[in-house]
Amino acid sequence: MNGRNEMTLTFSARSENEAFARVAVSAFVSQLDPTLGELNDLKTAISEAVTNAIIHGYDSDTARKVTIEGYIEGDAVSLTVIDHGRGIEDLDLARQPLYTSKPELERSGMGFTIMENFMDRFEVVSELGGGTRVSMLKRIESKKALYN
Description:
The protein is α+β, with helices and mostly antiparallel strands. The chain has one domain: Histidine kinase-like ATPase, C-terminal domain (Heat Shock Protein 90, 2-Layer Sandwich). The chain starts with a strand and ends with a helix. It has a five-stranded antiparallel beta sheet, with helices on one face. The protein has five helices and five strands. A hairpin with a 2-residue loop joins strand 2 and strand 3. Helices cover 36% and strands 28% of the residues. GO terms for molecular function: ATP binding; protein serine kinase activity; protein serine/threonine kinase activity; sigma factor antagonist activity. Belongs to the anti-sigma-factor family. Its EC number is 2.7.11.1. It catalyses: L-seryl-[protein] + ATP = O-phospho-L-seryl-[protein] + ADP + H(+); L-threonyl-[protein] + ATP = O-phospho-L-threonyl-[protein] + ADP + H(+).
């Protein structure tokens, strides 16, 4: 594949759209011919990021949108999940394994940990009242192996 291929997807911040996001990202990434393991890692990471945006990003029902920006360049796929919600009050605390700000929803508190472990690069930027951006990058080794 030559050059950079990009996609942007915006959808309502509704829990039923988490599966839609997984399928859309899987379809986009499929052009790199990932292994099932690589594809499962990507699907799990995007699922965690989108679920966090839906559950933790918004307090009210107004203008609740989640955007996924992605690009493929060479053997890497970059995905950024964006919400324009309330932001994360204490990012260091939120990144701690088993921490959840919504224990009443029986959340595991492992979302950021899972994303960080499944991806090659992971970054969270959040601003109170300004939303959150979760950026992830994964190299697809199976595609690289084809060229060696």
